[in-house]
Amino acid sequence: MATSRDRLGTLEAEGSSGRQGYSGVEVVLSSDPATPAPLCPHGPTLLFVKVNQGKEETRRFYACSACRDRKDCNFFLWEDEKLSGARLAAREAHNRSCQPPLSRSQCVERYSQFYMEDSFCHYNMFNHHFFDGKAALEVCKTFLQEDKGEGVIMVTDPPFGGLVEPLAVTFKKLIAMWKEGHSQDNSQKELPIFWIFPYFFESRICQFFPSFCMLDYQVDYDNHALYKHGKTGRKQSPVRIFTNIPPNKIILPIEEGYRFCPLCQRYVSLENQHCEHCNSCTSKDGRKWNHCFLCKKCVKPSWIHCSICNHCALPDHSCKGPKDGCFICGELDHKRSACPNISTSKKVNKAVRKQKQRKSNKMKMETTKGQSMNHTSATRKKKRRERTHQYLCS
Strand 154-156 relative to strand 193-198: parallel, antiparallel, unpaired? Predict the structure, then answer.
């Protein structure tokens, strides 16, 4: 099992995925209701595909939406795999017997001191699944639409190992439920959201929610070694708050080391200095960043400009390492899965594979032919030696 620090490094790499050289598993967001996903104990599963640079997508499969460790939920099904009635019945029985802990009655017992019974639901945010069915869905919908949605704010602090894509899809469904209670005149209003997540997922979150911005407030967890201020290792939490509320309306505590930048019109940490070239306070990790005139942006203080890569990176980085953008077309505004050239890429990859196969077959034939010729030549030499030996002995 990876350590917490290793896991944090993995998360940061995943936050920057969709890069050249990237390989891993991506979620496939299906919008076809005619093909519902199979169920596991945590509700509808998600469709995944393993991707590698320069290779076609491999066989797609369904897996649990909530658990990334097969030890927690071992559901696995190929997309094109057909199951018998007996196996489907066995799976349904397994799902019923392996429901996640903390039932609605347990929620009621735990939170009844503070909330009424109709104020919470047992819910999987990775697939928008209510474990208590339509009754729980109606409780949520009623809550969101009460007083035409006035005064509702969504605060979400999902597990940092969760994928951004399914979370964003779920949040959009909750937003749609909230909007159902509005009149046509207020259809442009947005549900206020605070999404707590590591700062290195900023680009992916803003890809789904362009109106979001990242606050400079560092979210600390007292019971977590990495997500808090410390004297050793990481000296600040990498967790931030993403919101669609204008940042100039959010006041951060001065006594905790935040100041108001009149140029940016928002609160930032004391270490985050305004860059006159970028015209913003650019730091994202609590340190003062440096402006690179070649990259035309501010970068981390530990980075230097590499003349080979022509961009800033760590001094000991590999020049063959990942680069920002889609590794199919090289554009920076989308991931590989959303690339308009993906079908063309598949054809090119297929043609390349065929060409490699032909070359391999040709080499095998030449090798076989060469071995055959060598064998014939060796046989002739052996016969000549035998005739010479017979002549000398006669």
Answer: parallel
Taking the whole predicted model, whether its pTM rises above 0.90 is answered as: no
Q: Write out the chain's pLDDT in tens, 394 residues.
A: 344 445 555 566 556 554 434 457 788 887 666 778 899 999 999 999 887 765 666 788 999 998 888 888 889 999 888 888 888 888 888 888 887 766 666 766 766 677 776 777 888 999 999 988 898 899 899 889 888 878 899 999 998 888 899 999 999 999 999 988 776 666 678 899 999 999 989 999 999 999 999 999 988 887 766 666 654 444 678 899 999 999 999 999 999 889 999 999 999 988 888 999 999 999 888 788 999 999 999 998 889 999 888 889 888 887 764 445 564 555 555 565 566 555 544 554 555 556 656 666 666 666 555 555 555 555 666 666 666 555 445 4
C-alpha distance from residue 43 to each of 39, 177, 278, 368 (Å): 5, 20, 46, 56
Angle at 92 between CA 89 and CA 97, to 5 degrees: 125
Instruction: Return d(Cα 240, Cα 254) in angstroms, integer.
Output: 17
Q: How many angstroms from the chain centroid is the CA of residue 219?
A: 21
**SS3 of the chain: helix, strand, coil, percent, to 5:** 35, 15, 45
Give 230's contacts (C-beta < 8 A, 6+ positions apart).
none
